[in-house]
Design goal:
Oligomer: single chain
Number of domains: 2
Radius of gyration: 18 Å
Number of helices: 3
Structural class: alpha+beta
Largest sheet: 5 strands, mixed
Shape: elongated
Length: about 150
């Protein structure tokens, strides 16, 4: 693979703040602005949709496609099977204080907007500092029927 030092990173139509050096690139998450690191060697994180890299803040997944002729890095967001809009499902039964506090954050978000995307829910719980992490708690809520697709 060609070194990507000096390449400019782009999402679908906008430039993305990034630092490309050698076969590595660091860029700002397209969702929350958190740090994302990718290695563009074959079979390494961020090198393809099958081997995505994750935002360290919100766990959104990305892969990077270098356009060597135009010295651009195209950043693609990976849609997970959980992606989509969610609304409140059945009433939660809480056993831990952290779950009650995290659910109140989620309930406020759902109430204010009538629903929320998976990544928005994960980011809200991460900001609340749930000990299991945002993604783990949202997946737990989906498995238990507390959140369901809109």
């Amino acid at each position: 693979m060609t070194a990507i030092t000096g390449f400019t990173a782009w999402s679908e139509s906008q430039r993305v703040p990034a630092d490309a050096h050698g076969n590595n690139v660091a860029f700002a998450c397209l969702g929350c602005g958190g740090p994302v690191l990718a290695t563009l060697l074959p079979h390494q994180r961020g090198s393809s949709e099958a081997k995505p890299t994750e935002c360290r803040a919100c766990s959104a997944a990305f892969w990077v496609d270098p356009e060597v002729a135009s010295t651009r890095l195209l950043i693609h967001r990976v849609k997970s099977s959980e992606s989509g809009r969610y609304v409140a499902g059945r009433s939660p039964v809480h056993t831990l204080g952290q779950n009650v506090a995290s659910w109140s954050v989620i309930a406020a978000l759902l109430s204010a907007y009538g629903g929320a995307d998976y990544d928005e829910l994960v980011a809200a719980v991460r900001q609340h500092d749930h000990p299991a992490g945002g993604k783990a708690f949202i997946d737990y809520c989906i498995r238990n029927g507390w959140l369901q697709r809109a």
